[in-house]
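User: Can you help me understand a structure? I only have the sequence.
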Amino acid sequence: MAAIFSKRNVVIGLIVLAALFPYVARNDYYLHVLTLAFIWMIAVYGLNLLAGFTGYLSLAHAGFFAIGAYALGLLTVKAEMGFWPAFLLAPVITTGIGFLVGIIALRTKEHFFAIYTLCVGYIIYLVIDKWEGLTGGVRGLIGIPAPADIGPISLSTPIAQYYFVLTILLLVILVIYRIIHSLTGKTFIAIRNSEDLALSLGISTIKNKLLSFVLSTFFAGVAGALYASFIRFIGPDIGNLNITFDLLVYMIVGGIGTLSGPIVGTLLIVWLSQNLQFLQDYRMLIFGPLLTLIVIFSPRGIVGFIAGWFTNWKLRRKVNINQAQEQAEEV
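Assistant: Let's start by predicting it. Here is the structure, written out as tokens:
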């Protein structure tokens, strides 16, 4: 039984379930919601890499998400560039801006870093909102093209776009997994646990923190570009602090510093939001206390709680088996 529910089999099962979902649901609305959830997951993975595994909370993540979206929109709508070159350039532009911000931001620590990135995120929002000649201001950008066809493969239908975003999400998860289990990922974790100790061991903390920050902005840029091509209309609100709050909720509820936390948290909150739309005006009153309770009673979120419970169960089981063996030997 334990072999059936091994981590590998669970992952394969979830991928198969996601692949079969369009044929089971047969509802364009659910397909739209889940595709959008996949895009948020990609953004949350970027935030989780920085906040969960490196220990630096960026409150400018929605700003970089917006940069990725507007980069794709401006390149395709105003510069009339093809979709795929624009899609590849959008995360690069986001990463370049993230690099420049990170060089300055990472000279601060802890809450000073959070406050600084909060200011950066608000500045990005103001630039998008006020620079009407470039971004369109409050009118936003319309007419952003959907993903272009790849040879004979058409990406114009909702199902095709669903599989396209799902493929990008799986690639992002694979990349995050490889990063976390590499020497670089262990360096990130060492900085999170004790930056002073990591520094005393000869680890270049500035270099590794900057790398983590830049990678997080890259994933935010990818998610933003996907969002723009999926919704095909963007406005300044996508860079608002409310988006950062939503991403934080997804990450913390699912499990900060865990690999599957962004998936669990995003799916759960998106599902709750869809089923509680009549309480949309009071969402902050609902998710605020929920977030507070989780931070107090389960700091590592749902995934961390389940993982801790399962670890304790295995330890108790091992102890009981050892006790049973000792009693049998005495008899």
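Now, to help you interpret it: The chain has a mean pLDDT of 87. The first helix runs from residue 7 to 25. Let me know which part you'd like to focus on.
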